[in-house]
Amino acid sequence: MDELRKYAAELLAKGEVAAVIGYQQVSEKRTKPIIAKTAEDCSKLVFNEYCLNNLAVYLTKARVKELRRVNGSVLKLAITAKPCDVHGIIALIQESQLKREDVTIISFNCAGVVKDFGLDFSGDTMASKCVHCETHKPIYSDVIFGEEKATPQVSDDVLAKIEAIEKMSAAERFEYFKAEFDKCIKCYACRAACPLCYCQRCITDKTIPRWVESSAHSRGNFSWNVVRAFHLSGRCIGCGECERACPMDIPLSLLNRKMVIEAKEAYSYVSGRSLETPTLVGSFDVKDSDELFM
Ligand code: SF4
Ligand code: SF4
Ligand code: SF4
């Protein structure tokens, strides 16, 4: 922990970054995000198995944009990022929301994080995103801390549920998701937690024309959740933050992860994995598969 705090404080002291986005411990098994702007703030930084949030979301949301602008120029930010969070940062760079040179990535070797605050880390309590994680070492970073650790091997419940849904008839699938989406209260916590939902004006906030009914009604709920899944297709990095933020426990990862699988199978593409690869939705190749549209 000391090396992380020292590194962050030095970045600030040298004026290399405007702030360090990281985690601070708030109780024995709970952390929360902190935007460290002083050496004292840096002394609170931690990284451990209770660091659930994907902090990449703070790189684009308006309040941090303000932090980055001083006298009209954009200042560099540092961010502490799990290897999976790095995918979110890379996806933002791929989508031209951020420049690589404008972010210092402080990463860690990671064996997984707990699925909920207050739990001890074990195979049974590992977050579902960690169950199917393929990158326990960051693929891009400016510095890496921590020893490599063994990851508990556990069964992938989300994949099993996706496979079960695939075996349903179209009518059964519709009823399944309608029942889930009927629970939606249109709080938009899923959107707020998602690093790739950075639109200045979301489709659901548009009123002329209104594309998505605003009340928490079956029709609008269905269109909101399906539209959002489509908007994240080929872009979602599978961080699971939308599902974790949802107060109604709607299994959003069933949709989002299915879309990740489809993009990978049809186009060999997974978002946030390579700075050299153009985005799936922003590139066109005549050899692209038409399978999804048949
Ligand atoms: S849609 Fe959900 S899982 Fe995908 S990037 Fe956004 S928050 Fe993460
Ligand atoms: S749901 Fe679509 S329009 Fe709304 S913020 Fe997300 S990507 Fe943008
Ligand atoms: S977080 Fe859940 S309840 Fe809130 S808008 Fe998203 S899906 Fe609906």
Please indicate the percent range of residues in DSSP E strands (runs of 2 or more). 5-15%
Rg from alpha-carbon coordinates: 20 Å
Number of helices: 11
The SSE order reads HEEHEHEEEHEHEHHHHHH
Structural commentary:
This protein is α/β, with parallel strands linked by helices. The chain has 2 domains: 144 residues, no CATH class; 125 residues, no CATH class. The strands form 2 sheets. Strands 1, 2, 3, 6, 7 and 8 form a 6-stranded mixed beta sheet that branches. The protein has a two-stranded antiparallel sheet with strand order 4-5. A hairpin with a 2-residue loop joins strand 4 and strand 5. Helix 6 crosses helix 11 and helix 9 packs parallel to helix 11. The longest helix is centred in the last third of the chain and has 16 residues. 33% of the residues are buried. The mean pLDDT is 89.
Please outline what is shown here.
The protein is an alpha/beta fold and 294 residues long. It has 11 helices and 8 strands.
Features:
294 residues, 2 domains, 6-stranded mixed β-sheet, two-stranded antiparallel ribbon
Write the layout of secondary structure elements.
Blueprint: H1 2-13, E1 19-27, E2 30-36, H2 39-42, E3 45-46, H3 62-68, E4 69-70, E5 73-74, E6 77-81, H4 83-94, E7 103-108, H5 128-131, E8 143-145, H6 157-166, H7 170-181, H8 189-193, H9 218-231, H10 241-245, H11 252-267
Parallel strand pairs: 1-6, 6-7, 7-8
Antiparallel strand pairs: 1-2, 1-3, 4-5
The protein binds iron/sulfur cluster (3 copies).
